[in-house]
């Protein structure tokens, strides 16, 4: 936990963050396809379970072995709870009661919580006025891009609290995950270990609530979406997640939640013939301005 990180990201870290935002932004598409044939908790279980198989396959191919330490597996369990089990369940439940646009805006509060939590718990990620200003401007950019939903029209307050709790869980996950660098664990092993722990927790929950899976019921399109969700949006994404966390810290890493709406809108314009409007460009400029403030180098000059 005391290992130092780069508070200002270099070009490589920014590239990984942008790729991560595309991978996690694409998860909404994969989930949208899969949810037509599969219940939500089953999707989550398949997501982390298949990702665990893929990651351990890569790890073994690279000559990496699962750790034997009980302390390490306890840490994987904590990380799995904070980064997968708690937020995935809350998001699935919350989005059955509120619009996805409102959920996206509430989820974009993650960097705000991260600045506070990391500032309190990590000596090398102290909160500064410039960081708070940057996160606030970026959050406004997300609201501008998505549009402020009509909160008063039947939206469930408890569901909104659930999404905010998701953002808080992600913030603590980012801080908690810093311990793996001090443990000198390869990011691929870390990613594999925490999704394995998540799968072990989620499997009995999904079996109890959703019931046994009929593998013949979903079509090929659904299974393709599950594979994309597990391999791209989970396995590959979490390797990038832990690489960024190891080098740039929790505060920089969780800026990805403000980049995901940008990726989703740009992907929609490229592949779904959706048009980009003036508010989208304004929102992107505000997000870029906020990210530059959190990075700090330009402003310090």
SSE pattern, N- to C-terminal: HHHHHHHHHHHHH
Global Rg? 19 Å
- How many β-strand runs? 0
Helix content: over 70%
Shape: globular
Number of helices: 13
Most strands sheet: none
Query: For the terminal residues, how far apart are their CA atoms?
Result: 30 Å
Low-pLDDT stretches: 150-154
Q: Which percent band covers the strand fraction?
A: under 5%
Mean pLDDT: 80
The computed structural class is: mainly alpha
Short structural summary:
This protein has 301 residues and is mostly helical. Helices cover 76% and strands 0% of the residues. It has 13 helices and no strands.
Provide a descriptive summary of the structure in words.
- About 2% of the residues have low confidence.
- It is built from 13 helices and no strands.
- The two termini are 30 Å apart.
- It is globular, with a radius of gyration of 19 Å.
- The chain is mainly α.
- α2 packs antiparallel against α9.
- Helices cover 76% and strands 0% of the residues.
